[in-house]
Amino acid sequence: MSGTLITHIPQAMSPSESRLAHRASRHVKEKIIESILFLAALVSVFTTLGIVYILVSESVVFFRHVPVWDFLTDTQWTPLFDDAHFGIVVLLSGTLVSSGVALVVAIPLGTVIAIYLSEFAGPRIRETVKPMLELLSGVPTIVYGYFALLFVTPLLQKFLPELPGFNLLSAGIVMGIMIIPTVSSIAEDAMRAVPMSLREGAYAMGSTRFQTATRVVVPAAFSGIMAAYILGISRAVGETMILAVAAGMQPNLTWNPMEPAATITAFIVQVALGDLPHGSVGYQTIFAAGLTLMLMTLVFNILGYWLRTKYRERY
Amino acid sequence: MALQTAAEIRALIARHKRWDVIFGVIGILCLSIGLLTFATLFVDMLIDGYARLRPEFFTEFPSRRAGQAGILSAWIGTIMVMLVTAAVAVPLGVAAGIYLEEYAPSNWMTHVIEINISNLAGVPSIVYGLLALGLFVYQFGLGQSVATAGLTLALLILPVVIVATREAIRAIPGAIREAAYALGATKWQVVQGHILPYSTGGILTGVIIGMARAIGETAPIITVGALTFIAFLPPSPIKAEPPFISFEWLMSPFTVMPIQIFNWTSRPDPAFQANAAAAGFILVFMTLAMNGLAIWLRYRIRRNIKW
Questions:
Q1: What is the fold, at CATH topology level, of the domain defined by B53-304?
Q2: What's the pLDDT tens digit per position in A120-153?
Q3: In this complex, which of A50, A131, A141 lies closest to B131 when CB atoms are compared?
Q4: A53: nearest CA partner in chain B
Q5: Whether A261 contacts A247, CB under 8 Å
Q6: What residue of B is the nearest CA neighbor of A132?
Q7: Whole-angstrom Cα distance, residue B51 to residue B42?
Q8: To the nearest whole angstrom, how far is the Cα of A140 from the nearest Cα of chain B?
Q9: Contact A113/B91, CB-based, under 8 Å?
Q10: What does the domain layout of chain B look like in residue ranges?
Q11: What value does the mean pLDDT take over residues B198-227?
Q12: What b/e sequence results for A148-183 when a residue is b if at least 16 CB atoms lie within 10 Å of its CB, and e otherwise?
């Protein structure tokens, strides 16, 4: 039977025919490569799942020892003492006050810089200044911490003699300067996305640059600018080293930036520096603190992401 | 309010134009506040640490006496951790970027991956430290080692590498792909022969920026439990006897530059703070150099590529 078949096939395939022939190996190889690339893309999903799993599973154990209600309402935070109290409000106050100071610095400066770069500066200034601002956000935060503790605090103490060596104020100011590039670059992107025709309309009506910027461009880019603020807040809330170095690590329920206080992040650093046995309540506490932090930044990030896509869609 | 005379109208215009000038000045002032702070920080570190910036500073272990302390174990630790980070983050990030740009069908799975990556970029770095503490240190049993720190930082910069890869690939015109497919190339042949070579510059820029971020990260490494006082080096990766290469260093305890700076900064003795300033200056200089290199690369790519 095989003999009859052979008669129908030429003795040797021409080179072009053999090249065109279907080769299974080629397709198998393609499939394998695609699967490997897909798995690499899935790593990021597993990272998120890993974060959620670790934070939740350790926090669940923590909340078996500490009722959620106490966690939210207690006004003392002494997890490593014999008389342990777990009031997250104490750490939250440090986080909120320092982030508040940072925003007071970053929002006006970041907004003005964004308006200036987008509406006033020529392309040459823009192209030189933007990379320099990027460098500002590339400085390691530990170096900013050193700067806040040993340069900004002594400087502020000349004007405010009663300022303690560790305080939320100087940490917040330095943190604000650190997040200026985040705020200004996102806000500027939003303003540049406003169509030229709107500006041309305003100029045609006789507006000046300043009037065009404040009355046409900023309102049109409003949701994008808000996104810039919110992503700035999210960075400030998650910032660790500046606060661990310059704000002190003593839990302190205060709304006064002139006092030292620990933030959620600084507390995690403080515990990690000590030698806590795996599985102790103190060890689980940092995961509960981390979960709180993660939830806060998640809300801000989702809000910021939503606002950003909103301005992108409109034009 | 009807404006009667030309003089009144001119005055109004002049008043409004004055605001343009005022705002221009305010804008430049705000910019200089930002940039001056950076210059002050740089100069302040240099002045505080200048006396310590001597060759011995790089060849001495940390010491109880500030004058004899150096950053030998810190910079070697940093290099080792960065090797692990690059070895993990670059292949994974580039592969994920290629998948999302060239292979991914537009379905819910791809959508989930994309949202997830942009969300991961906003997770505070200390949370990565908690992930590593729970997962790498205890569940995988890697301990407080170079490998744990390297993997943690790799996960941290993965979104940066993926986004840079995607942007570099997206800049390649579709005609290039079509030409390759028309000649019978398979998808992987297109990627390997065209997409990857043309996007290398852009990917490299992203990798450098990611590494510059990783080199200065402190919080996740403290959370993992890096020691702050290390007066020995990890075992050498090269051995005199076969098989010549050893991976013992991966499991070794370590310290890195930012941790060393943190340790010195938190001591009350000004002599140690001078050490912190010197090490901080070196660290800022390194990140500046890396970022500068990335910006220069980006500029060169923009100038050289004309599709």
A1: MetI-like fold (1.10.3720)
A2: 988 888 888 888 888 888 889 999 999 999 999 9
A3: A50
A4: B131
A5: yes
A6: B35
A7: 15
A8: 5
A9: no
A10: 53-304
A11: 89
A12: bbbbbbeebeeeeeebeebbbbbbbbbbbbbbbbbb
Output the six-digit token pair for A83.
Answer: 């008389």
* SS3 labels along chain B: CCCCCHHHHHHHHHHHHHHHHHHHHHHHHHHHHHHHHHHHHHHHHHHHHHHHCCHHHHHCCCCCCHHHCCCHHHHHHHHHHHHHHHHHHHHHHHHHHHHHHHHCCCCHHHHHHHHHHHHHCCCCHHHHHHHHHHHHHHHCCCCCCHHHHHHHHHHHHHHHHHHHHHHHHHCCCHHHHHHHHHCCCCHHHHHHHHHHHHHHHHHHHHHHHHHHHHHHCCHHHHHHCCCCCCCCCCCCCECCCCCCECCHHHHCCCCCHHHHHHHHHCCCCHHHHHHHHHHHHHHHHHHHHHHHHHHHHHHHHHHHCCC
Q: What is the ipTM of this complex?
A: 0.87
CA distance A191 to A311: 10
Which single residue is written with the structure tokens 């192209």? A127
Closest partner residue to A210 among B23, B104, B224, by Cβ?
A: B23
Judge whether A173 and A98 are in contact, CB under 8 Å: no
Tokens of B113: 């991956």
A199: closest CA of chain B, how far (Å): 15
Q: Is A3's pLDDT higher than 50?
A: no
Tens digit of pLDDT for each residue in B156-202?
Answer: 999 999 999 999 999 899 899 999 999 988 899 999 999 998 898 88
- What DSSP character marks residue A258? T
Amino acid at B96: A
Spatial distance between the Cα atoms of A290 and A12, rounded to a whole number of angstroms: 70
CB contact under 8 A, A208 and B17: yes
CB contact under 8 A, B16 and A112: no
What was the pLDDT predicted at A14?
Answer: 57
Task: Specify the residue for token string 């500068």.
Answer: B292
CA B46/CA B65 separation, integer angstroms: 21
Contact A265 B217 (CB under 8 A): no
Residues of A in contact with B187 (CB under 8 A): 30, 34
Q: Are B40 and B48 in contact (CB under 8 A)?
A: no
Q: Report d(CA A41, CA B278) in Å as an integer.
A: 40
CB-based contact A41 B95, cutoff 8 Å: yes
Residue A69 has pLDDT above 80, yes or no: yes
Query: Could you give the dihedral angle defined by the CA atoms of residues A245, A250, A251 and A255, in that order, rounded to the nearest 10 degrees?
Result: -70
Asked whether the beta carbons of residue B130 and residue A287 sit closer than 8 angstroms, the reply is yes
